[in-house]
């Protein structure tokens, strides 16, 4: 398949990529789902390694990257249905799932409402409820007033430790550049989905094996949030790795090893 492809839906287009090495051409599928304000390139370090073992599918959430922006606001169900539409279009009956932050919250919705479409689920730097209505309303207002570029300094502090920002400034800058370019309406539409989402009672219905992974210095979704998920799904385990919110980049080698070990166990 080509590097870049698009799924045309009634109100928007989803940009996606498929990657696998020849030896993995009949291997299980692995779907990656991004955090708020990032595009599919946040998984580059994982794709290089995991494409040796899986058929890897990445996509840009609506309003992010090269995907287009339908009229906001959005709901968590809208985001989950985008994922299912992509699986349907590619005729993927079942896949492993890995999502971070809002991607992990989308994964929880999928586990509750479409668990039969997935095998193992990896939920990273997320929570069954992220933030409050008030905090997300304030974020939406700030983006409307000043745009996303004005939030890059605070975002860098939330996403990466000072050590990573200093020693891997090029990686951090690339991710933050993508953040600043996200469509403001698409970003705020997803903030509205986060404001309304509360799955704390519903995740007990998730029967898929779940690995919840936290960043040990993540102040957005601290380890206690991931421990809650692991303890409230039917079969869950919690692991913490060094880093803040985007620890799949900060601890890429350790993350890849833990992910591969869980998916192949």
Automatic annotation (TrEMBL):
InterPro entries: AB_hydrolase, AB_hydrolase_1, AB_hydrolase_fold, PcaD/CatD. It comes from the Bacteria. GO terms for molecular function: 3-oxoadipate enol-lactonase activity. Keywords: Hydrolase. Gene3D superfamilies: alpha/beta hydrolase (3.40.50.1820). It is an enzyme of class 3 (hydrolase). Residues 28-250 form the AB hydrolase-1 domain. Its EC number is 3.1.1.24. The keyword Membrane does not apply. The keyword Kinase does not apply. This is 3-oxoadipate enol-lactonase. It comes from Labrys neptuniae. The lineage of its organism: Bacteria, Pseudomonadati, Pseudomonadota, Alphaproteobacteria, Hyphomicrobiales. The gene is pcaD.
């Amino acid at each position: 398949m080509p590097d870049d492809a698009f799924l045309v839906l009634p109100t928007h287009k989803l940009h996606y990529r498929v990657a696998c090495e020849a030896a993995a051409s009949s291997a299980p599928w692995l779907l990656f789902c991004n955090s708020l304000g990032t595009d599919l390139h946040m998984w580059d370090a994982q794709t290089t390694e995991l494409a040796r073992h899986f058929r890897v599918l990445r996509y840009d959430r609506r309003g992010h990257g090269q995907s287009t922006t339908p009229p906001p606001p959005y709901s968590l169900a809208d985001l989950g249905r985008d994922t299912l539409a992509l699986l349907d279009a590619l005729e993927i009956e079942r896949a492993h799932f890995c999502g971070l932050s809002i991607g992990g919250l989308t994964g929880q919705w999928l586990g509750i409402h479409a668990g039969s479409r997935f095998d193992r689920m990896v939920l990273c730097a997320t929570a069954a409820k992220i933030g409050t209505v008030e905090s997300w309303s304030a974020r939406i207002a700030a983006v409307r007033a000043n745009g996303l570029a004005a939030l890059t300094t605070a975002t860098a502090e939330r996403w990466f430790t000072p050590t990573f920002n200093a020693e891997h400034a090029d990686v951090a800058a690339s991710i933050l550049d993508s953040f600043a370019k996200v469509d403001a309406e698409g970003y705020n539409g997803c903030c509205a989905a986060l404001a309304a989402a509360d799955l704390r009672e519903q995740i007990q219905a998730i029967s898929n094996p779940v690995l919840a992974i936290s960043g040990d210095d993540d102040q957005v979704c601290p380890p206690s949030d991931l421990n809650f998920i692991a303890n409230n799904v039917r079969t869950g385990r919690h692991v913490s790795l060094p880093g803040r919110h985007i620890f799949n980049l900060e601890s890429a080698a350790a993350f890849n090893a833990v992910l591969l070990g869980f998916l192949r166990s």
